[in-house]
Amino acid sequence: MDTYQNKDQQSETNFEEMRDLAIKQLKSGKSLTGEGGVFAPLLKQFLDSALEAEMEAHLRKEKQSDKKNKRNGKRKKTVKTSAGKVELITPQDRENSFQPEIVPKRSTVLADSLSAKITALYAKGMSLRDISEYIEDMYDTKVSAQTLSSIVDKILPEVKAWQNRDLKSVYPIVWMDAFHFKVRGEDGRVTSRAVYNVLALDEEGKKELIGMYVSESEGAKFWLNVLTHLKNRGVEDILIACTDNLKGFSEAIQSIFPKTEIQKCVIHQIRNSTKYVASKDQKEFMKDLKLVYKATTKEVAETELGNLKNKWGGKYPVVIESWERNWEELTHYFQYDTHIRKMIYTTNAVEGFHRQVRKITKTKGAFTNDNALLKLIYLAYMNISKKWTSAVQNWGITAQQLRIHFGDRMPMDI
Q: Treating both helix axes as pointing N-terminal to C-terminal, what angle do 298-312 and 317-325 enclose, rounded to 10 degrees?
């Protein structure tokens, strides 16, 4: 009985000492979890005990397998944690087969303590140098840029798995577009990279980035590879594809998904047109052009295009010819109600996603390599997509109209 009373008294004394030290550190403004903080010894005690327990479990398992493995002393190891540097006593075994999980071999940063924080900061666009300074300020711990880079690199397998994950068989609407970044090659030269993105609405009306790929430049040939990859991952049908006016893009889509209805981006067509209209004519030309793409029906739009041609065709024949050549793929949106038209007559949905990514990457100069580019865009997407939990507005009505237009190709659980 006296023994238990002595232990209780000792525990109470230790608690009182920790409490008094905690109050003192709080009043002085010192972090309780930083280096020298009151909770740092508790973390060391917990980790040392956990490593001992892991070793015991490992040796029991070895014994059950008739292996004559035994302990072989201990080794000191320093790891960086949110409580500062902690010196651990790691048990060793003769066969060197012990692989601790809580603090893995060769790990110098406690993953559960700092790695998630480091990756989150990187996802917000902070440089490795800025993250290093932040960690030192917040946790009284120095972490080199090389260590930080190795921590962030751990998400690469996750990125690759995400890029190759299985997809749904049908996507009612997809938007396809690329945006560009600078990457520094091994020879030190800075080159441009096109990041191809495929943003989709699934049958529930929820957004999903179903494809992200990096290439040296944007072209219909690479888009063909993208579309083939989507099909190999399980996509059997796309109802409406919204694209820019890249030459050969439509042919690439229909070679893989021949039934897909292609809606070329009207805004891209307008931008391309105004480049070839003299500045003194642009205001009046745009006023007349607006009557075309803002028409209530396709028939009215065709009439207005005729008027545009009569007025401006002599002065800007190439511009008018471009509208006539792409007319069918520019005007599919006239078949639908207003809220569907707004969704599909431009690639604004995917461009909006690109603008959000740019907010994260704007502090970057040239990326060190393609993987560094992929990592940051993937992490940015994971943050952005947290808000994509609900269907887009008016999806119930949209789904019904798509079902009427496309029949059984549009899946609906009714």
A: 160
Cβ–Cβ under 8 Å, residues 252 and 235:
no
Please indicate whether residue 235 or residue 116 has the higher confidence score (pLDDT).
235
Mean pLDDT score, 141-159 = 76
Give the pLDDT confidence score for residue 279 in this predicted structure: 94
Pull the structure tokens for residue 96: 């060197």
Lowest mean pLDDT among 46-60, 165-179, 274-288, 300-314: 46-60
pLDDT in tens, 28-84: 655 555 555 556 676 777 678 778 888 888 898 888 888 889 999 998 988 877 667
* Tokens matching residue 73: 């002393």
Pull the structure tokens for residue 300.
Answer: 């009215």
Q: What are phi and psi of 354, to 5 degrees?
A: -60, -40
Question: Which domain does 37 fall in, by range?
Answer: 12-157
Beta strands 207-215; 190-201: pairing state: antiparallel
DSSP string, 199-266: EEE-TTS-EEEEEEEEESS--HHHHHHHHHHHHHTT--EEEEEEE---TTHHHHHHHH-TTPEEEE-H
Q: How many helices (H) and strands (E) does the chain have?
A: 17, 7
Number of domains within the chain = 2
Single-letter code of the amino acid located at 116:
A
What whole-number distance in Å separates Cα of residue 336 and Cα of residue 318?
Answer: 29
Compute the distance between CA of residue 153 and CA of residue 168 in angstroms, rounded to an integer: 29
Looking at the structure, tell me whether residues 135 and 174 fall in a common domain: no
Q: Say whether both 301 and 257 belong to one domain.
A: yes
**Amino acid code (one letter) for 29:** G
In this prediction, residues 212-222 reach a mean pLDDT of 86
In a domain, 376, yes or no: yes
- Predicted TM-score (pTM) of the model is 0.72
CB 217, CB 191: distance < 8 Å: no
| Phi-psi category of residue 244: left, alpha or beta, with phi > 0 → left and psi -120 to 50 → alpha | beta
Domain boundary among 157, 176, 191: 157
- DSSP letter at 38 equals T
Please indicate, yes or no, whether residues 247 and 110 belong to a single structural domain of this protein. no
Q: Do 125 and 195 belong together in one domain?
A: no
